[in-house]
TrEMBL record:
This is Lysosomal dipeptide transporter MFSD1. Lysosomal dipeptide uniporter that selectively exports lysine, arginine or histidine-containing dipeptides with a net positive charge from the lysosome lumen into the cytosol. Could play a role in a specific type of protein O-glycosylation indirectly regulating macrophages migration and tissue invasion. Also essential for liver homeostasis. It is found in: Lysosome membrane. Belongs to the major facilitator superfamily. The chain crosses the membrane at residues 14-34, 54-79, 86-107, 127-151, 163-184, 204-223, 253-274, 294-317, 324-346, 352-376, 388-411, 431-451. It catalyses: L-alpha-aminoacyl-L-lysine(out) = L-alpha-aminoacyl-L-lysine(in); L-alpha-aminoacyl-L-arginine(out) = L-alpha-aminoacyl-L-arginine(in); L-alanyl-L-lysine(out) = L-alanyl-L-lysine(in); L-arginyl-glycine(out) = L-arginyl-glycine(in). PANTHER family: MAJOR FACILITATOR SUPERFAMILY DOMAIN-CONTAINING PROTEIN 1. It comes from the Bacteria. The keyword Transport applies. Its main location: membrane. Keywords: Lysosome, Membrane, Transmembrane, Transmembrane helix, Transport. Homodimer. Interacts with lysosomal protein GLMP (via lumenal domain); the interaction starts while both proteins are still in the endoplasmic reticulum and is required for stabilization of MFSD1 in lysosomes but has no direct effect on its targeting to lysosomes or transporter activity.
Amino acid sequence: MTQTTVQSLRDKPAVRWTALILVALTMFFGYMFVDVLSPLKTQLEETVKWDSTIFGTYGSSEFFINVFCGFLIFAGIILDKMGVRFTAILSGSLMLLGAIIKIYALSEYFNMGGIGFDLLNSASFPASAKLSCIGFALFGCGCEMGGVTVSRAIVKWFQGKEMALAMGIEMAIARLGVFAVFWTSPMISKHFAQKGEMFLSVQAPVIFVGILLAVGLILYIIYGFMDKALEKEQGAEEIEEEEPFKFSDLGKVFGSGMFWIVALLCVLYYSAIFPFQKYATEMLSSNIGLETETAAKIFSMFPLGAMFITPLLGAFLDYKGKGATMLIIGAVLMFACHATFAFFPFNEVSHMAAVTIAITAIVVLGISFSLVPAALWPSVPKIIDNKVLGSAYSAIFFIQNIGLMSVPIIIGRILDVTNPNVAPGEPKNYTTAMIVFAMFGVAAFFLGFVLKIADKKKGFGLELPNKTK
Ligand SMILES: NCCCC[C@H](NC(=O)[C@@H](N)CCCCN)C(=O)O
């Protein structure tokens, strides 16, 4: 008698990769939205009077609710209790709501005294910035919740298969979003600035990405149907979540020493990446004397490089391992890039040499930004029980968000203090700010070592391949 084995949806490559593409595209749009105003820092200074401190506060506001209200911890609990489907749609809706508020905050109507303007306006902090912060904070709840949910979804579809490759591709698609926005945002802005539409020059790029976020929500809803089908199948097979989530499970996450090492490494490393992204365009224009559009294009090589290399390193990790070593090398490269921008005398070499060195440093940062994320996120299921994985990812994001929230404010303040007499739109001295970013690399390097030693002692297999079949 012949026995037929029924293939699970997870076992069908076309199905699991389609699921990945659906969730990753929404993150692509999300990452575009995160940095939609980053290449426009100088225009914001001129149009809506946001100085560096205001811009820094705006950059931090993405994480306000996640940190101050502990939203990310709730996000993890919601994910573990309600499942991927519900949480994905909730996160997509929050991102869209936040985007709509930010679009309104930058509109000419609002800035000319529209509804809510008088309530929010003050001399030290313009209403446009306050309302943008509110919108960005709501968006940030959705985006971070989405990030955790997507990680959980990938584990659900890919554990024991090409998990690191899948996570690598998901992050690569997100990086493509950052690359895309560093090109499209200045282009759209310039189009309206040339027509003399000053408010639209900062609002139109946000409207464009806001529309993409609406498409992202639809993709999450479509993913929901696939998730339901998988769960129905798992109902019979009981592949995961044998017991329901309990609050006491959170203790397992926070009680793990390995969790703390990974979480601290994560906050240190990412604090020198995402906040830097917000200032990189202006730093490049200031250090090298470039126009905003050219500086943004040079910086776009950073996510582009990361986009190509992250999946390759993910695949390397699946088949060869060496996760902890990758984290250490990534921290060293990050330090090298930031130290170059802090100490290299760009004004003493030819323009060509300055541009070449800047591009090289940005490419090095791109390689670093491939090594660390490719190794970090797939390491989490190796050190944390599957049942509390949603909470573990959220807890790591929560700790990381504290850094992502504080660092842009600190950098903005440093820039205003170290550039007291610099007029809006004029080049700034970025030395101190870049030294701060470089120091995060040093600290991440040491933690990488601690992680490698701890793994060697306790045998979590961080240096081992992921692929089991
Ligand atoms: N499924 C994605 C794993 C995490 C990717 C990681 N993102 C983060 O760490 C976010 N918490 C921070 C994103 C900041 C912008 N909103 C990444 O490498 O992108």
